[in-house]
Specification:
With 251 residues, the protein is an alpha+beta fold. It contains seven helices and 13 strands. The structure holds guanosine-5'-diphosphate (GDP) and manganese (II) ion (2 copies).
Amino acid sequence: MELFAVPDLPEIREGDDLAAMVDERVDLREDDVVCVASTVVSKAEGRLFELDDFPASPRAREIADHLADIAGEEKDPRFAQAVIEESTELIMEAPFLLTATRFGHVGVNAGIDRSNVADGDLLLLPKRPDGSAARIREGLSADRVVVTDTCGRPFRHGQRGVALGWAGMPAARDWRGEHDRDGRELGVTVQNVVDELASAANLVAGEGDGGTPVVVVRDWAFGDHEGSDAHFREVDGDFVRQALREWRFED
Ligand code: GDP
Ligand code: MN
Ligand code: MN
């Protein structure tokens, strides 16, 4: 398996045809997996806004005031408003905003980015990243697309690449029913390969001014496994999320 960044991509603007831009820069193979940072998907889809587009509601002010008290610095209530509008549930309101987006992803600040965009600008996540992945796939000579983001996670420091959407392949390899080296049947392992590919691609894409938002994964095969599209947990059965709903930050 080999990964490389698509060279010479310009600053992406609303309306840009990402698939065509990638296809003309790389001689893609059908079985390549093309991993695209959500940042540029959002830019192409016109998800760039300004703080002024989100006049703060009383609720947003309350949240921002609380966060400002905790952090000891100003927090813009318009940013909190943007997060609220992008979310179906506020899971934690302090000491940071952890929310669920409409498409099922749980992340800090609803994944809204203020890096790799101009000051005062907000870049919202794509509305439906698997729809985005499917659209990009239509225009590519490669069959598989993963839309990624960099995201923190509980229990560990640091951020890493995760998959927000995918097309042309299942999200996971279901190993259940296969056997380990001692002949024991695997009972629980469902390997989330789109997150693993996103993570590998994110290593190549980087986080700063590298200008490499699209990474091609070559010579990686899904293999002879059952597939599964289970990716984001449903609330029912997500016990950590349920526990967090009950939890309150004490400062
Ligand atoms: P995210 O992980 O999806 O939030 O994306 P990042 O902001 O971390 O950016 C990932 C990579 O894409 C970095 O190498 C950035 O320099 C690059 N990048 C971000 N926006 C653009 C753009 O409009 N054009 C190009 N060529 N690269 C970009
Ligand atoms: Mn991001
Ligand atoms: Mn990133």
